[in-house]
Amino acid sequence: MKNIVVLASGRGSNLQAIINAIKEKKINAKISLVLSDKKEANALKIASENNIKSKFIDPSFFASREGYDIYIAELIKKENPDLVVLAGYMRILTDKFIDSFEGKLINIHPSLIPAFQGLKAQKKAVEYGAKFSGCTVHFVTKELDNGPIIIQAVVPVLPEDTEKELSERILFYEHKIYPQAIKWILEDRVIIEGRKVVIKNAKYGTLPVNPALEDF
């Protein structure tokens, strides 16, 4: 069985979506560890409720971002993960951490990368007057929110949208495309060629999700 480690800072809704997919036997894997940089993160509560080992690692105990990342990287390596999943993890990772898990470190971002990278992507889309936004699952590289794209979902931006309303519409698809991407990776269907990612036997050219969802 494949093994996943999750890093999360907040409410843990994507973590819950992944747990649900595992319980429904759509993903043949286990989550062996959830780590958080926030003591009050709801993700830690979700992990505990599902009997998943979880830890809060306080960044204030470390003199530098590098020191923190070296420490958590060693904790993760002990789990021998097949995949490291960022699920609302709000810290910018150092280069050494990214190097440690190159090719098996993924993130979900609430925009259609390369648009609206960084924080408050939904707010940026509303304020910019974008007509479409969405979400992107991508491999993590040293350039923030700019790694090779696995799957994207398109969501319309309505004239009366607030940041909260657009965020909720995007979140609906986050909970579908993130478990789907994880399933594909753990089934060894993902081929990375430079910036281009191809899913073997997937259906391309579909909307609102490309490539098409298969299980979610």
UniProtKB/TrEMBL annotation:
Coiled coil: none annotated. The keyword Iron-sulfur does not apply. The record marks 145 as: Raises pKa of active site His. One of its GO terms (molecular function) is phosphoribosylglycinamide formyltransferase activity. Belongs to the GART family. GO terms for cellular component: cytosol. Residues 2-182 form the Formyl transferase N-terminal domain. It comes from the Bacteria. This is Phosphoribosylglycinamide formyltransferase. PROSITE patterns: GART (PS00373). (6R)-10-formyltetrahydrofolate binds at residues 65, 90-93, 107. Transmembrane segments: none annotated. It holds the Pfam family Formyl_trans_N. The keyword Transferase applies. It catalyses: N(1)-(5-phospho-beta-D-ribosyl)glycinamide + (6R)-10-formyltetrahydrofolate = N(2)-formyl-N(1)-(5-phospho-beta-D-ribosyl)glycinamide + (6S)-5,6,7,8-tetrahydrofolate + H(+). Catalyzes the transfer of a formyl group from 10-formyltetrahydrofolate to 5-phospho-ribosyl-glycinamide (GAR), producing 5-phospho-ribosyl-N-formylglycinamide (FGAR) and tetrahydrofolate. The active site is at residue 109. NCBIfam families: PurN (TIGR00639). Its EC number is 2.1.2.2. Keywords: Purine biosynthesis, Transferase. Pathway: Purine metabolism; IMP biosynthesis via de novo pathway; N(2)-formyl-N(1)-(5-phospho-D-ribosyl)glycinamide from N(1)-(5-phospho-D-ribosyl)glycinamide (10-formyl THF route): step 1/1.
